[in-house]
Design a protein that fits this description.
By secondary structure, this protein is α+β, with helices and mostly antiparallel strands. It is 39% helix and 17% strand. It contains eight helices and eight strands, in the order ααααβββαββααβββα. A hairpin with a 2-residue loop joins strand 2 (101-106) and strand 3. The protein is elongated and about 55 Å long.
């Protein structure tokens, strides 16, 4: 879905003006309204009324980042993998990173299945099979996932949300730490603290397996002679 740009003469400038923010919202309203193929989905969510309820929120948005998050939250109601709002900075926020751990949802439980080779991982004995129970201020991991990831991102099904969305579970400002309550294979609960430094310079970046496969496929396709 295209980015809402406000006034056409200044499409790339953010002015935080009310008319700009409302026009962007109307751009998002119009595209599914007239181009979304699953008409029954729009009826289910009552698209017109839903968008109307977001008008005060976009007007009150304090900055560009919060404005786009509100638009992303709105589009999530459609729950379609091909319909999304992409901010001007792209799908990944500049200056953000994640800890070098890969998480997978198995039977509604969140497990670390792969870790980076770092001293922090070794010192805290973070190994595959470690289950994440809570994030931050003792927030259950499922609730944290719903409120901080799925609220603004959807792939159109629970399976896809968990397979792709979980990659952003621990995403946050680069270099900051995230506190986790975990359970080891021996069923002991404990707390750990992981640094968001998967892309730290000086070592090989830690990338989720699904993205490594996608990048490998893209390289393979781009090398075809036709």
């Amino acid at each position: 879905m295209a980015q809402p740009s406000g006034r056409s003469s200044k499409a790339s400038s953010w002015e935080n003006a009310t008319d700009q923010k409302v026009w962007g919202l109307m751009t998002i309203w119009a595209q599914p309204k007239y181009a979304f193929p699953h008409r029954e989905r729009l009826k289910e969510v009552n698209w017109d009324s839903t968008v109307q309820a977001f008008i005060p929120r976009v007007i009150d948005a304090e900055d560009q980042e919060s404005y786009y998050k509100i638009l992303m939250e709105l589009v999530r109601f459609i729950w379609d993998s091909h319909t999304e709002v992409i901010p001007p900075w792209g799908r990944f926020t500049p200056g953000f990173d994640m800890p070098p751990v890969e998480v997978k949802v198995i039977d509604d439980r969140f497990f670390i299945i792969r870790t980076g080779e770092t001293e922090e991982m070794r010192a805290q004995n973070v190994v595959p099979g470690t289950e994440i129970l809570e994030v931050g201020d003792v927030i259950p991991v499922r609730q944290f996932f719903e409120d901080n990831v799925l609220k603004c991102h959807s792939r159109g099904s629970k399976q896809a949300d968990e397979a792709v969305g979980v990659c952003c579970l621990l995403y946050g400002p680069k270099g900051t730490k995230v506190h986790l309550t975990v359970r080891d294979a021996g069923h002991d609960r404990r707390t750990i603290e992981l640094t968001r430094n998967a892309m730290t310079e000086g070592r090989e970046p830690f990338v989720y397996t699904i993205f490594r496969h996608l990048m490998a496929r893209k390289r393979a396709v781009s090398s075809l002679p036709w």
